[in-house]
Design brief:
Blueprint lengths: L2 H6 L14 H6 L8 H9 L2 H10 L8 H15 L2 H16 L2 E3 L5 E3 L3 H23 L4 H17 L11 H15 L4 H11 L7 H16 L2 H7 L5 H20 L2 H4 L1 H8 L13
Antiparallel strand pairs: 1-2
Helix pairs in contact: 3-7, 3-10, 3-11, 5-6, 7-8, 11-13
Amino acid sequence: MPEAAEHDRYVAPRRLPLGPGTLTRRINLEPVVLLGGGRALLLQVAHPLVAAGVADHSDYESDPWGRLVRTLETMSVLAFGPPGASRHQTVRLARVHRGVTGQSAEGVAYRASDPALLVWVWATLVDTALVVYERCYGRLSDVDRQRYYEEQKLVARACGVPASVCPPSFADFQAYMTHMVEAELRVTPEARAIAASVLAPPLPGLLGPMAALPARLVTAALLPAAVRQQYGFNWGATERWLVGVGMVTTTVTFRVAPRSVRRLQSLAVLGGSSLLGPGRRRAA
């Protein structure tokens, strides 16, 4: 696809940003959704070409959470930022994606602007937000799931995902996720190296091991079983019990706190994001 045509795909729809009353605001501003960060990232890099791109174009070893934080900030600004910020982010994203190209260790060419890769990265974030939110606050109705999905398709459009590539309905989206997990994902050595860095961050002293255990347990719990097995996570009765206790505690804590209080941190991060203007340039 010519470069100009690829750039034209990145268009912030007029219905962005998503304001009060949208399900995206209700779900994505819940801080508990951040617990799914490891899940989203490990699902993304379980696609061999995404893993190759991250390995080649990011400093994941020294900054293991940097790519995920940048991705979440980008999605937040696209969804909730002022119209000018959303447009700026869309332009920036198109420019960054053009620079992420290469070849996997198996000799397969990749480019970040490939619609198949764009839709997969976007899909992992949508699916993870719903998985974590529903685990803590209960299953949404089918109507609300579809409504949330329609809102998220607007964000996908701003991320350069062609409308024709997004699964049409939420049921189609679920079928797409099942197909990807069962037939397309394959954990490569690059993916395992990225996972090891993310789940064992280089923190000083005892902070690293203290952070690594809960991150690993929560991520393992939230991943689809087939992907969890590919990464080689231990997952038995003890792990299930620990995660169960932790999730119950987290759920009770967040249910007690008023929604306005729970959202303060997310709104503060959004309001102070460097991505509201010129800033970080790392690609992947």
